[in-house]
Specification:
Length: about 290
């Protein structure tokens, strides 16, 4: 920990780690180098999520305060532990695998002068996002942007800065797994909080990624579920529209070509009306809840 004038550190850098023995030391060194001239003091909090290697020992040897989970609880759970334990009023999170540039941290912190959260967006040319993950990442980001009504350059970047008092109320609903960052992005946007993005580089990770293909489906469900909290019609209306158009098309075809009517188009149109009704009801409930607050 580096503190100026024996005051509590203004900035806490939280690093979730799990089996990152090959990179955690250099990551912490790069964070210290990036914050060498930072005014107000800072601390580095590494949360070891049940590593089977010497990640915790190496993090401590590099100068971080280490908190250990006795068994793996998930990326999001490690971040929650670190955020709760952090002493700083400003928190920056960065992965322990060496993929994110620590030198961007001061820019993220400065950006909090006009935003509640500043995200390091992996949009620069040549970023090392694995080829197999790019289609799913693009699709999920576009879907999140459409449903939220806000352009989101990077939905789940693991390098971001925010104020502790802003994030604490969200911890109860934030997931314990990799969808933590995606969820906090959507929750803040849904609440109308200003979120800014700063372009950053993204390096090839040290070691093996812990994200598996099945996580893409979890991210999809997460996006839909989160948007339902803030703008349910953004989900219900397109789904109902698709069913209504299918039903109308089938009804027209049956009447003009076959000169008969079947039950399928009626069922599709009624389903569309029912889904739209659910959407309007959800919007009304949300409106009344906001007025009550």
């Amino acid at each position: 920990m580096v503190v100026a004038d024996n005051r509590p550190p203004r900035l806490s850098v939280v690093i979730p780690i799990q089996d990152e023995a090959g990179s955690i030391g250099s990551v912490i060194d790069s964070v210290k180098s990036a914050l060498d001239t930072y005014e107000g003091g800072y601390e580095i909090v590494a949360v070891d999520d049940g590593s089977a290697d010497d990640s915790a020992k190496l993090a401590a040897a590099a100068g971080a305060s280490v908190i250990s989970h006795s068994s793996p609880r998930g990326y999001g759970a490690a971040l929650k532990t670190g955020i709760k334990a952090a002493n700083g009023e400003i928190i920056t999170i960065i992965d322990g695998d060496g993929t994110y540039p620590a030198e961007a941290i001061p820019r993220l912190v400065r950006g909090l002068a006009s935003a509640d959260m500043v995200v390091g967006a992996r949009v620069r040319a040549g970023v090392c996002v694995p080829l197999m993950r790019r289609p799913a990442k693009w699709l999920l980001t576009k879907l999140a942007s459409f449903l939220s009504g806000v352009k989101i350059p990077d939905l789940n970047s693991g390098l971001r800065a925010f104020r502790k008092d802003v994030v604490l109320p969200y911890l109860l609903v934030l997931p314990d797994r990799f969808s933590f960052t995606s969820t906090i992005t959507l929750l803040m946007i849904g609440d109308g909080r200003p979120v800014e993005y700063i372009p950053i580089d993204y390096h090839k990770r040290a070691g093996k990624s812990k994200i598996v293909p099945s996580d893409a489906f979890s991210f999809l469900l997460l996006i839909i579920r989160t948007i339902m909290f803030f703008n349910p019609l953004k989900f219900f209306f397109p789904v109902g529209l698709v069913l209504f158009l299918l039903g109308s098309g089938k009804l027209t075809t049956d009447y003009l070509i076959y000169d008969r009517l079947s039950g399928t188009p009626i069922l599709l149109i009624l389903s569309a009306l029912q889904i739209w009704g659910m959407g309007f009801l959800a919007e009304l409930i949300l409106f009344l809840e906001r007025r009550r607050k």
